[in-house]
Amino acid sequence: MTFKTKKPSVRFSQQRSYKRQLNLHLAVIIVAIAAIFLKTFIPALSGEETTALAFKVFLMLVTGVVVSLFVEIVYAISEGTVEKFYSYKSYVDPINTGLLIALVLPSVTPIYVLVLAVIIGVFAGKLVYGGYGFYIFNPVLVGVLFAMLSFSTQLVVVGTPLQALKDAMSGVTTQVDLWPLIFGNYEAIAIGSAGVIILLLAFIYLCVTRVIDLRISGVFLVAVAVISFIIGYFNGFALDYILINLITGLTMFGAVFLISESVSSPTSRETKIIYATVVAILTMMVRVLGTYNEGVIFAILFGNMLTPFINRTVKRSNQKTLIKTVIFSVLMVVLVGAVLGLMLNNRIEEANAFIGGILL
Amino acid sequence: MITENKTFLEPKKVYIPLTDNQSKIANVKVNEGDKVITGQVVAEKFNGKVKTPVIATISGEVIGFTEKMDRHGKLVDHVIIENDFKRSTVDLKAFPNEIAPAEIRNRLNILGVKEVSYDGLFTEIDFSNPVEHVIVNAVFNNEPFVSTEYGFVMKYAEEIADGIVLLGKAAYAKTVTIIVDKFMDVEAYEELGKAISDKEIDLKLINTKKIKGWDYKIAQKLVKEPLTNNLLDNGILYTTVDAAKMVHDAIREGMPLTKRQVAITGDSLKSNAIYDVRIGTLFSDLVDDLEGYNESENMNLHIGNYLTGTQLPTDDFAITGSVDSIEVSDFEEEEEDVCIKCGDCNDICPAGILPQNIMDAELRNVNQRIVELNTNECVECGLCTFVCPSKINVLEWVRRAKRRVG
User: Fold this and answer.
1) For residue B267, which of B244, B241, B246, B290 has the smallest C-alpha distance?
2) Which of B317, B340, B371, B387 is the best substitution to test chain A (most A C-beta atoms within 10 A)?
């Protein structure tokens, strides 16, 4: 009798990376459908005509998927590896990427911009590096950043809550209602970011199925909350500032789908915490100081850029390193929050005088 | 499939390997045609200056020597003894009462109680290096799937406790620890508790529902330094309750190591059993006793620890003292996915090193980075491969990295 050798099997079949991808797939599709629904259903209740908007959003999602699949299949044909597309397994990741690019763009996006964004994202962001599992930048964000920088005039959305927040800093008084924000009935910076409730459900589902690592997404959310609390505290409206920063913009969407993307993020628990902290700090910096309203895209791409370096900083993973990392991260978050808060309030000179005039 | 208790103590022929993984040179003491009796020394194997006797496990006639695959997958010389069914034994002295530590060590060596538990973190019963801590595992023969039989623990609780004390005494150990499952069968737990209550044995409870290298963590708490591949180098003797029972038998009753309990499982066998086997029996004989195989295309034979055990291409090998379980099963080869860098292997590694980063460095051929990442601290427990959602054999990459930097 002869026997063959085999590889050891994994813990549970649910833990397979393909299953994780499928779970993500499911969540993205649900969020995409919910985005159409939430965007159009609530205004329709009060008698507004929303069919055109719903059709536009639907068209964008379909275009994203079709173009993404087209690019992947053409590339596979040119490489001679088209056999892998005989099973549904290989369709999951392209569909995810296409849907996510469509979801991160606003509903005013012209279709040709979306097509270009998907081509750039899938080809230059993913396939050039060798496909799924090998890229260093999140392909979704590569495509979106390309669209945002090259077609900035076509993608202008006016009256978003983040814009209102920025205006409020320079003295303009604005009123933002909480309920429309929660149900997604407002001018959002992206299709997918509307509807925090559905994103929260997706967050919980993906945490349970272990697609999302809480040490990235959770730390990111907590760090954003802490920084915005400190900024708000210095400016006298702490709670509003936290709420608007957490539930609008791409914060929640980024925590669920963008920053938790495992291929382009670091691998050990310490580096994951550092990565999430860096991304949160940069997000808030762009939101407070930058010319753009939304900082998540820049911040995550910058975090991807830093990932090899962050990976190199931690050599072993034990309790000592973990405590060091946590202390460092908390200090950084608090310091950045305080500095940003004081800068917004034009009190940086006062603070400088308080610590003895060593800054300026 | 019903698992039953069976015995197979009178094989027609036994094949005893003259060397093993540690001792590579053997000095044969018998010739073809000699009569031997149970417990007689047929050869002496050497690992450096450490001499270990090879013991005849049945009485009979030496009918020759042959080259065969042993349980580690290597071709080594075996001595063949034909059974005469007389069961004559070397008369060995038993020590039912007090015994000096040096005498225990001497007896264990003479009676061949050395290579009992081998796979994974388990060490041989070896006193050539000073041993400071003795740890006995009453939970697993093989983490994570093959557990110790609790009927065995219940039946022989006193003997096991006595064996553990003897091991501690022989080593002049500072601490003697027994690892017990939190969710263990209550009766077995009570029996074991009664047996060890009046002896100086620490009890450590572990939660077996979570797999995270508990034994490694317990060992590390004892020595407070990074562990090496072989725990004996850290002054730890780590073994199973089977070995404790054998130590008791050897000292108190003067029984040489001639039989052991082997769990033979798997879907590809017609029936499964827990066997009392004479050491040296061919596995194919046991399979005949179990009515053969359910033959299929992809069959796999796995000896010992689920994560770190060996897989053999043939069933023509002899059971040795270190074989505790054999699994023969049908399998479907599943494709390896790309690494999605989820970091599960980094989280579970009991040594606290980063297998994913080591694998990455090995793929990019960066020697300096492999050294920086403390690759030499890997104990090859196999948990990284076990948790990998992409079915990558992470352990193999880390092993390669380890070999590359020496």
Assistant:
1) B290
2) B340
